[in-house]
Amino acid sequence: MINMQPYQNPTYFLYLLVGLLPIMIGLLYGRRFKVYETIISFVFLVLTFGGDKWMQGVSIIGYLICELILIFAYLHYRKSKNSTGVFIGAVVLAILPLVLVKLTPFFAWQHLSLFGFLGISYITFKVVQIVMEIRDGTIKELDFKGVLHFLLFFPTISSGPIDRYRRFIRDYDQAPKQEKYLKLLGKGVFYIFLGFLYKFVLAYLFGVVMLPYVSKMALASGGISKWLVAYMYVYAMDLFFDFAGYSLFAVGTSYVMGIETPMNFNKPFIAHNIKDFWNRWHMTLSFWFRDFIYMRLVFFMMKKKLVKSRITMANIGYLTLFLIMGLWHGLTWYYIVYGFYHAFAIIICDAWLRFKKKHKKQIPSNKFTEIFAIVLTFHVVCFSFLIFSGFLDTLFFR
Amino acid sequence: MKETVLDILANITGDDEVREDLDMELYESGILDSMATVEMLLELQMQCGIEVPVSDFERTEWDTPNKIIAKVESMG
Amino acid sequence: MNVKKALFNIFGPVILAALILITILVMPNSSHKISQKTIYQASLSQSKNIFKGNVVKRAAFEENYVPFLGSSEFSRMDSFHPSSMAIHYDRSYRPFLLGAPGSQSLAQYFGMQGVNAALKGKKAVMVVSPQWFVKKGIETGAFNLYYSNLEAVSWLLHATTSQVDRYAAKRLLTMTAGQNSNLIRKCLAKIADGQELTSFDKTYLKLKYNQLEREDRWFSTLAMNDRIGKIERVADKLPVQEDFSKLDEVAYKMGQKSANNNQFDIYNKFWNKRLKKSWKHLKHKQSHFDYVSSPEFADFELVLNQFKANKMNVIFVIPPVNTKWMAYTGLSQEMLDDFNAKITYQLKSQGFNHIVDLSQDGGVDYFMQDTIHLGWRGWLKMDQAVSPFLSEKQAQPTYHLNKYFFSKEWQKMQGEELSNFLKDK
After folding, report:
1. Residue C204: inside a domain, yes or no?
2. pLDDT value of residue C218
3. In a domain, C163, yes or no
4. CATH of the domain at B47
5. Whose CA is closest to C337, among C276, C398, C415?
6. Residue C95: beta bridge partners?
7. Residue C53 sits in which domain range?
8. What are the chain A neighbours of B30 within 8 Å (beta carbons)?
9. Where do the domains of chain A lie?
10. pTM
11. pLDDT per residue as tens digits for the range A331-363
């Protein structure tokens, strides 16, 4: 049987076009064919997790059964009681499979890697989000089919963007008005084609043509060389265009299906500071971390008056957030350093913003300082990607 | 109610400019951030008795002083 | 109406783009000319895209460019490199270098497939490195570098159910690159299985061929190495008069000047970059190396079959190994002699009689530029045989190929078995 990874080759897009055509026609007439959508989602999931990847298919089914039981059990419980202990237990159980999968390479427990499948992180983010919203009481009812569609929404299954349950269901439960759908369709098609440019032209240029060459030259020069600097830029560009291209496909495809999956990137390289950068880069992930880790933690600390100083509180929040983000990428020193690096960058950024606020009159603010801020932020970010790439590990420790 | 909200905002941001322009972009201009949001929600909870869970907080609905006032009035 | 217009605005450009793309890709190729400058640059580039493509090679072979098939030795561009000599003495031919590290027989065989028509009746030079003939033959990673779907599609369009083609299909299927297109894999499996391709297969292949060759025309020259400046610089150092003893003296002096920082007379730059750090670990490390038993002998037979089919007249060069380096690493001269006897037999018994056997010259001063690659005086000696072969008219050879050379028995034959076999003949 054939296996096809999402958005990898022209054939996939051809299948996508054929599969989505009935949905498009339906939506144009203001109808959403839910049964057909279910069938076509299933077909595309089988394409991704079937064939020689059938082991992943088995994992994802087992994983889903566990998580669904957890979600509905917690919802049932929450209707009558609300103990913090049970809530924490539910969150721990929800992320347990992901933690085990992430630990696998570290301890080389071969049999555990059976658990893993493409996109497990992203489904876990969605599950945790549902559990937290049940706790907050913002989700009071869950529709089984709706949850399944939300978790398994095939355009975003492999790497996001991470949607929110209530937002998704609003779109899914109704068909957009014709006028609105035409706008969505136009944007969707445009995004997919912009994605072609990003992923198949620019990411190819940076990642396949240039990266191996600069990597070879940097390794041959050894240590810190101009080629290492070149590697940093090329890698950053490759990372952006590859991921942004993929995200455009996912968002574009969602739009064609009448679902407004949130955007993942918003011109990240024109960010004015590192805080601004995280509002523009992999936005759905950073917003997820902001809403479900940072803000909750700060809220908790503030309410219980655990820490006096606001600044300390914010900094503890940043360190926690970015350390978890680093660990989530994988258990290697460079991901963890990447996390700390960004935490400190944002702490410094906050300090600077406070300083700037106090000395508003003395500090110039013009076109030149703006460009300087953008260039500086860009380089801070590029260097963080160099850490993230693991290339320094290869260069210095291998 | 309006005054209470503006007091809270001015207090958190340490600046009276929020009183002057009630339609100013609070997030885009960097006046509010996640930290300040949490403070604001806690203050609103204590002073006005309205509960907004963090997961129900949609930035686009709270991004100017006027919107915040409207939001609080609709909930109170 | 409004909806129709909106839909047209959304999909009109997409449909238009798709139509243009399909037309351009599937349309047969126009005979847009490739410039002399491009051909010249390509002939020196050793770029993989040129090796894998059809368009530039075809244009070159229609001119006075002669294919020089080989591998890494061609990048040793000193003044006596075949390209430098041909340019400086304005020979009637120009080498078109086809090969870089890892381009062994199978890669060379498929590399010719798109340009067989242009190679009809041409002369060629092939440098056969003993180092190709390792136990497992060409590694799939190396092969993949020199493989393109264009080569395979070109080949499939003319593939038959002959034993030779079936062998080639089987070999290609063992390479991971041979698996990267469903169409190609299915067609290869048919050929390997002894089935004819259907006319549907052929039509589809033909369309694919047009598309791939179009891409080749557009893209293969984009990122090509430019060595024109380099080769012209080294060529300028040659004496005006082409006189062997004078040239040999210059070659000796050049070698002496640039290979003096190590005990093996290896080119200083190569030594510093590749061996200085590691040479101490290599002592006696090559005593078990064996180039006598290898599937490469059958892959090489494929190449010979293609030479015959194209009615080409080919001169083969068998380079030596640096004797001083051999003594240090423990590489066996006896084993190399066996290789030499085996390959010579495979060539001569089938009517390939033009062989430049340099295998005994590894100890001549400044013959080798480094451990296994010809340099200064080595290039010069090769030129002594190759230049007249290419410049003068040669009698058309008659080849009589023997399927035995595809057999496992021949691939693996070594030691006493080999010497008895060769003695009997």
Report:
1. yes
2. 81
3. yes
4. 1.10.1200.10
5. C415
6. C66
7. 31-425
8. 275, 353
9. 10-175, 179-256, 268-397
10. 0.74
11. 889 999 999 999 999 999 999 998 988 888 888
